[in-house]
Structure formats: structure tokens, C-alpha cells
Amino acid sequence: MHLESLSLLNFKNLEEVDLQFSPDLNCFIGNNGAGKTNLMDAIYYLSFCKSFLNPVDGLNVRHEEEFFVIQGKYQRLGQDESIYCGLKRGQKKHFKRNKKEYQKLAEHIGLLPLIIITPSDIDLIMGGSEERRRFLDGLISQYDQIYLDHLLRYNRALLQRNKLLKQFASERSYNEDSLDVWDEQLVHYGNLIHLKRVEYIDRLQPVFQQYYELISCGNERIGMEHQSQLYETDFALLLRENRHKDRVVQYTTVGIHKDDILFNLGDYPIKKLGSQGQKKTYLVALKLAQFDFIKAMSGMTPILLLDDIFDKLDKSRVEQIVKLVADDHFGQIFITDTNREHLDQIIRQVAADSKIFRVSQGTVREQNHEEK
Ligand SMILES: Nc1ncnc2c1ncn2[C@@H]1O[C@H](COP(=O)(O)OP(=O)(O)OP(=O)(O)O)[C@@H](O)[C@H]1O
Per the annotation, does 191 bind a ligand? Predict the structure, then answer.
């Protein structure tokens, strides 16, 4: 599967862009603030119906303009696919596949698999546990509708239980039975979600370790540990034991919504003790493992977006990543850099077709390989 062409109108700092891509390697080169990441974001939008940077759609409309349009033409499983996304300030977003508007955006997710590696991934390590749960849930639910359904039902039950706990406090009344209904639901769906999370982390772990070893030349030991209260105690018992506490604090303090993933380097948390380059290596390995996963589950090779991937990495790690992505295991790749040297290094190693685009103050033009 690959993106053949992209047209943009008023998307962030990109006023009008029309580009034809290589099915293999596409490089965006330009100075800081030129618009390289915005191009990546537009491609991300076409797969996930939203920006990876900015959850408020209206902020992606070019300043002083009223609307944006993103259009992409894809080759997917031997067929042409035309995807349209349009937004007028203050109005609903329109998202179309082959001119037909989606009723629900969720129907589109998974159609055009894509993995992005970006500097903002650092939130996965440095942010709170909800970042890591979102990563894991996103990974599983993209191709497992049942898991997504269980997650939605669990969250709904959690919301209702928390509402009741608040109500008890404000009305100073307490009815055990009304909590039981929600506890039953939490236990049922929570246990199913727990089993799936355990299974998926077990599957992700070895692939992730392999990528990390490849990039770091096997010099460092890493780990990923799923932390859940359900490993130690039965969920129903846990809820019963913590009922009194939950009533006092007015929310549910135990359950799979408290899970975390501990990212380790050696015996220590990478969050506290890892260097910037080690954290970056960790994230690249994690995302490449996610790539393999999605590839296996979707039966398609995802598009790979590498945004500013070489920043903070030493020469040897850069070389290892270049070798990795030059492998034909990966399909269409988009890569941004301010440094032409890195891109030339990749282009030299990749036997496949490649294109270079110069991005400058919101304009983009294809340049030939000799032009510097
Ligand atoms: N809605 C918008 N309208 C106009 N410009 C915008 C909008 N949103 C963001 N920008 C501008 O886009 C520019 C950032 O572009 P982008 O992040 O793509 O840069 P980049 O080329 O990736 O830079 P770097 O190398 O620093 O990562 C900024 O100058 C920012 O002000």
C-alpha cells in the first residue's frame, strides 16, 4: 500500500501543495519551522482522521483562512483509493473515501495503516501512565473490534460507578446494591481486557528487544513490564476491599484503568536514568515493533513516517537505523531532516526509488538528487 499523491490547501503553514510521491522513499528537507512536520501531519490525518500534534481541528487551518483541505490518492491492495478531509472553521469535519462520506470516522481507522516516529513520542516515556495505556489500547484495538468494545463498556461502567460514588457523597446516602451492578460489569470486562493486554505485551516484547539490540549493537539490556493490580488480587475482591476508600475519595481507585507499563533500561526505569539518546533508541525500537505488529495484523505494509528521527543519536545508532529502514521489510517511507547528510546516507543505501522535496516557509518543491 502506498500514497501516490497529496494535495493540500491551507493546512497549517502550507498554503497550496501538490506532490507526487515515490512508492519507496520520500525525503523532506528544510530548516526549522519550514513545514516538514506539517506535511507528515497531513499524511497522518488521512489515516487517523486527526492530527498527531493538535487535537483541536480548527487550529490546523492556516492562520487568517477559513478552511483546510487534505486529499490523498493511494494504491491499496491493487485498487485506487481517494481520501478527502475538509474542515471549515466552526463546522463539522468532512471525511470521504472515494467521494463517499463516512458516517462514523471510526470506520476509517485501520484502512490505511501507518506508523509515525516523532519527537513527541517522548511523552510515552516521560508522561503519565495514561499515555502508555493509550499506546497499548490503540495498538490492540486498531484490529481487534471486540477489545475496543470491551474497553468502551468498561469505561462506561467506570463512569457510572464514579458518578454514583459522587452522588452518595452529596446526598449522604449509600446503597450497596447500586454499586454491585457496576462492579460486576467492571470485573467482567476488566478481566477480559487484562488477558488481552498480557497477551499483546508478551508478543510485542521480543520484537521490541530485537530492534533495540540491532540499533544499540547489543550493548544494552532493556525491558518492558506490564504493571496491573490484577496480577496480585482477584478483581472482584479488590473492588470489595477498596469500596470504603472509593466512597471517601469519590472515585474508583482500583482496576485496569490504573495499569502501567514500566520501561526499563538494565534494572532501572529509563524515565529516570536513561540518556536522551537511549530514550530515543527505546522509542524507535518500540515503534518499529509496533510496525511489525500492524503489518502482521492488517496484512498490509504500513506507511512509515520518520520525523526528525536522527536527532540525539550517535553516528553508530544512525547507521544502524539507516541499515534497518533500507531493508525491503519496510514499504513506503517518508522522512524529514534538516541535515542533507543523513538523507543522502539513506538514499545511497536504499536500492529502491527515492524522491527529495525541499520545504521552505510553507512551500514544497521536488528537487533532483544532485541539487544541494
Ligand atoms: N494553523 C497554522 N497556520 C499557519 N502556520 C502554522 C499553523 N500551525 C503551525 N504553523 C506554523 O508551522 C511552522 C512549523 O512547521 P513544522 O513543525 O512543520 O516545522 P518543521 O519543518 O518540521 O521544523 P523543525 O525542523 O523545527 O521540526 C511554525 O512556523 C508554525 O508557526
Answer: no
- What is the band of 339 on the pLDDT scale with cuts at 50, 70, 90? confident
Supply the range of the domain harboring residue 264. Answer: 128-295
Ligand 1: centre distance to CA 312 (Å): 21
Mean predicted confidence (pLDDT) in 117-135: 95
Cell of 96: 470521504
Gap from CA of 148 to ligand 1 centroid (Å): 34
How many structural domains are present in the chain? 2
Dist. CA 349 → ligand 1 center (Å): 30
Nearest CA to ligand 1 atom 25: 32
From 9, 12, 29, 54, give the residue whose CB has the most ligand 1 atoms within 8 Å, as the site to mutate: 12
Whether 118 is covered by a domain: the verdict is no
- CA 29–ligand 1 middle distance (angstroms): 14
Q: Which helix (H) or strand (E) holds 111?
A: none
Residues pairing with 25 in the sheet = 333, 354
Kindly report, residue by residue over 65-77, the tens digit of the pLDDT: 999 999 999 999 9
By the 8 A CB rule, do 115 and 290 touch?
yes
CATH code of the domain in which 327 resides: 3.40.50.300
Distance CA 304, CA 332 (A): 6
**What is the pLDDT, as a whole number, of residue 324?**
85
Q: What residues flank ligand 1, with Cβ below 6 Å?
A: 12-13, 30, 32-38, 59-63, 308, 336, 338, 359
Identify how many contiguous H helices and E strands the chain contains and give both numbers: 11, 15
* C-alpha atoms less than 13 angstroms from C-alpha of 120 in its C-beta half-sphere: 10
Local confidence band at 44 (pLDDT 50, 70, 90 cut-offs): very high
Final residue of a domain: which of 271, 295, 319?
295
pLDDT on residue 346: 81
Residues 270 and 341 in one domain: no
| Residue 29 shares a structural domain with residue 157 | no
* pLDDT over 90 at 129, yes or no: yes
Given the CA of residue 359, which atom of ligand 1 is nearest to it? 21
ipTM value > 0.95 = yes
Q: Does residue 32 have a known ligand-binding role?
A: yes
pTM of this prediction?
0.92
Domain-located, residue 120: no
Last residue of a domain, one of 275, 295, 315: 295
